Amino acid sequence: MTFDLFDALPADPDTPPATEPLGPGAVVLRGFARDLGSALLQAVGEVSAGSPFRHLITPGGLRMSVAMTNCGEQGWVSDRTGYRYDPVDPDTGRPWPAMPGAFRQLALDAAEAAGYPGFAPDACLINRYLPGTRLSLHQDRDELDLRAPIVSVSLGLPAIFLWGGLRRADRPSRVRLAHGDVVVWGGPSRLVFHGIAPLAAGDHALTGSERINLTFRKTH
Ligand code: SIN
Ligand code: FE2
């Protein structure tokens, strides 16, 4: 008979979540948001009741496969005239829904755990992926303040995060992000090219066939 002692030990609630370096100034905080998952998803439902998900049009005229909405003082939008942050949702003509307190706190805590204390995001982009949805390599560079990091929370179905370099041509590494994982990048990695490979089909207990991503940014 075999008996694995470690199977018998309860998980230590004081064990900090695993931190996985991605590059200088960039980490994956494994499972950092896992316990908050259902509360965060409920809040996403409330935000999207006020400002519905939509497929934005790129300046080049293509419809993005990711569906997006925003909460906070600023929202990221794209149309034929370019990319911008806008305090008003162009689809509703109203300000974006307020950033839920739990979102703000999570972003602050995750940034601090990654070495960026005092993070005060004014924008949260919410991305919704279905099987086949992808996000091509890009830099987050529409923010006026590049000293603040990006905090990115994965919920629901797992995805392959493409983590490249400072040049578009740098070959990206592939990092699996699961429900509750949080990626933080800033400092020397702030302008690293990144993206999401086409989402694989699956069934998640909380989101079914979807992946939801929250991206927190300080834009002003
Ligand atoms: C983004 O780069 O805006 C989103 C990344 C992700 O969905 O994890
Ligand atoms: Fe991005």
TrEMBL record:
Superkingdom of the source species: Bacteria
GO cellular component labels: cytoplasm
Cofactor-binding details, from the entry: Binds 1 Fe(2+) ion per subunit.
Biased composition (Low complexity): 1-12
Annotated region described as Disordered, given as residue ranges: 1-23
Pfam families the UniProt entry points to: 2OG-FeII_Oxy_2 (PF13532)
Cofactor: Fe(2+)
Reactions listed under catalytic activity: a methylated nucleobase within DNA + 2-oxoglutarate + O2 = a nucleobase within DNA + formaldehyde + succinate + CO2
SUPFAM superfamilies, alphabetized: Clavaminate synthase-like
Example GO biological process: methylation
Entry binding sites for 2-oxoglutarate: N127, R128, Y129, R211, I212, N213, L214, T215, F216, R217
Positions in coiled-coil regions: none
Domain Fe2OG dioxygenase: start-end pairs: 120-220
EC number: 1.14.11.33
Residues involved in Fe cation binding: H138, D140, H194
Stated role: Dioxygenase that repairs alkylated DNA and RNA containing 3-methylcytosine or 1-methyladenine by oxidative demethylation. Has highest activity towards 3-methylcytosine. Has lower activity towards alkylated DNA containing ethenoadenine, and no detectable activity towards 1-methylguanine or 3-methylthymine. Accepts double-stranded and single-stranded substrates. Requires molecular oxygen, alpha-ketoglutarate and iron. Provides extensive resistance to alkylating agents such as MMS and DMS (SN2 agents), but not to MMNG and MNU (SN1 agents).
PANTHER family tied to this protein: ALKYLATED DNA REPAIR PROTEIN ALKB-RELATED (PTHR16557), NUCLEIC ACID DIOXYGENASE ALKBH1 (PTHR16557:SF2)
NCBIfam families: PRK15401.1
This protein's name: Alpha-ketoglutarate-dependent dioxygenase AlkB
Species in which this protein is naturally found: Cupriavidus pauculus
